[in-house]
């Protein structure tokens, strides 16, 4: 049973560029959440996608956007990159349909470095 | 891989001893809590969860205690092993879909 996978593993960009990160959820899961984890801190919630729509968003600017595809995989896009966007980006998947509790399982993350 | 939690609170325990990691959560309306373990260069790994209608839940070598009166969670690890060395985060579910993570505690197991 495949767990959550993310690509790429590492990425280096320069300020002002745009980046797209990808996530495939755990088999059987229908919901994807994205988190940003700065060094030395806990993950911070960016947004969650379910049924191909963003259904909740954390305190992140509109430069952060996402998409969920019919196969439940997801992309995180960040435009106009800033040095402060350097972080580990984590994808978490869960099963929402018909469940009151949606335990989230995380992928290994994508390490983004902005120069 | 890169280090997680370079400046986090650290708990050092002898191998074989029991570990207790504490977490204060922020929202009295939170109804679900999870403990995660994060090793260097990896994503958080689910350890154990608890709903707000429970005070205690046990897993294999781990126990989570919830005190809603003071908004406090603890994770107890029995017979701590070198493989338990990692950063531990508590997460609370706020609203229906959003999770808020604590700042984390680094656990170091001394041989």
How are the SSEs ordered, and which strands pair?
The complex is a heterodimer of chains A (115) and B (111).
Chain A lengths: L4 E3 L2 E4 L5 E6 L6 E7 L6 E7 L2 E5 L6 E5 L5 E5 L8 E8 L10 E2 L3 E5 L1
Parallel strand pairs in A: 2-11
Antiparallel strand pairs in A: 1-3, 3-8, 4-5, 4-9, 5-6, 7-8, 9-10, 9-11
Chain B lengths: L9 E5 L4 E6 L7 E7 L6 E7 L4 E3 L3 E6 L4 E6 L8 E9 L3 E4 L3 E6 L1
Parallel strand pairs in B: 1-10
Antiparallel strand pairs in B: 2-7, 3-4, 3-8, 5-6, 6-7, 8-9, 8-10
Percentage of helical residues of chain B? under 10%
The number of strands of chain A is: 11
Largest sheet of chain A: 7 strands, mixed
CATH architecture of chain A: Sandwich
SS class of chain B: mainly beta
Give me the strand/helix succession of chain B. EEEEEEEEEE
CATH topology of chain A: Immunoglobulin-like
**What is the average of the pLDDT values of chain B?**
90
Question: Sheet with the most strands of chain B?
Answer: 6 strands, mixed
Element pattern of chain A in H and E: EEEEEEEEEEE
Question: What oligomeric state do these chains adopt?
Answer: heterodimer
Approximate strand percentage of chain A: over 45%
Helix content of chain A: under 10%
Rg of chain A (C-alpha, Å): 13 Å
Tell me the distance between the termini of chain A. Answer: 37 Å
* Poorly predicted tracts of residues of chain B: 1-6
Under CATH at level 1, the class of chain B stands as: Mainly Beta
């Amino acid at each position: 049973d495949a767990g959550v996978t993310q690509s790429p593993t590492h990425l280096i960009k320069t300020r002002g560029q745009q980046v797209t990160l990808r996530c495939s959820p755990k088999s059987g899961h229908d919901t994807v959440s994205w988190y940003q984890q700065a060094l030395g801190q806990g993950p911070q919630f960016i947004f969650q996608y379910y049924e191909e729509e963003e259904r909740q968003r954390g305190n992140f600017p509109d430069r952060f956007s996402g998409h969920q595809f019919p196969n439940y995989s997801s992309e995180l896009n960040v435009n106009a990159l800033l040095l402060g966007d350097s972080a580990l980006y984590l994808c978490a998947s869960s099963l929402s349909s018909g469940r009151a509790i949606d335990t989230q399982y995380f992928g290994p993350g994508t390490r983004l470095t902005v120069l | 891989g890169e280090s997680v939690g370079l400046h986090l609170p650290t708990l050092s325990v002898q191998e074989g001893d029991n570990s207790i990691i504490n977490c204060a959560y922020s929202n009295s309306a939170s109804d679900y809590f999870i403990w995660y373990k994060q090793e260097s260069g990896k994503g958080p790994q689910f350890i154990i969860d608890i709903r707000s209608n429970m005070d205690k839940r046990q897993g294999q070598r781990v126990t989570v205690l919830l005190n809603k009166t003071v908004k406090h969670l603890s994770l107890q690890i029995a017979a701590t092993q070198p493989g338990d060395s990692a950063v531990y985060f508590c997460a609370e579910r706020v609203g229906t879909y959003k999770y808020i993570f604590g700042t984390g505690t680094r656990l170091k197991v001394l041989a």
